[in-house]
Amino acid sequence: MDLLPVTADYDLISERMRQSAAATYMEMIEGLRPYVAQALSDPAGIHDTEPGRIQAYTALVKLQATLVKELGLLYRVQDRPRVEEEAEESMPVHEVQLLLDEAQRQQDAAVAAAAELAEARTRAELVQREVIDLAVARDRVARGLKALGR
User: What confidence tens digit (pLDDT) does each residue in 29-42 have?
Assistant: First the structure.
């Protein structure tokens, strides 16, 4: 395997190497599980195996683990994975304060406009009521005058 220079695909390669290294470690652990279980369940069982064979197997496992670890170090797989949320933009406090002040001014203007509209509607309703009340009063007066004229 040739080492490639850092490219735009470095993050993708690094993520794939993390997954590959993890899969290899899991395969090694699963492969060793029966031997460890046998050694722990039957303490005399490990003594039946030749010492040279145990040392060779242990050295091979250590070599493979070291190679996987070294390969992972080349791609910095031990580094914490990047989270896209950490790349959020930040802005200085004074800009945030300016934005908040502008939002407050807009809200104050909207409230003032709503208050003016409500006041205008109330005045219109009062004028309309006054007109209706005057019309009702005029009709009463006219009826009263008709009644007196009879």
Answer: 777 667 666 655 65
CA distances from 107 to 85, 100, 103, 120 (A): 31, 10, 6, 20
DSSP state of 83: -
What are the φ/ψ torsions at residue 69 (nearest 5 degrees)? -65, -45
What does the pLDDT look like over 1-31, one tens digit per residue? 566 566 667 778 777 877 887 788 778 777 7
| Domain's final residue, options 81, 103, 138 | 81
Co-location of 28 and 61 in the same domain: yes
Rg (CA), the chain: 44
Rounded to 10°, the helix 10-41/51-74 angle is: 160
Can you give the pTM of this predicted structure? Answer: 0.36
DSSP-assigned states of every residue in 93-147: HHHHHHHHHHHHHHHHHHHHHHHHHHHHHHHHHHHHHHHHHHHHHHHHHHHHHHH
In a domain, 17, yes or no: yes
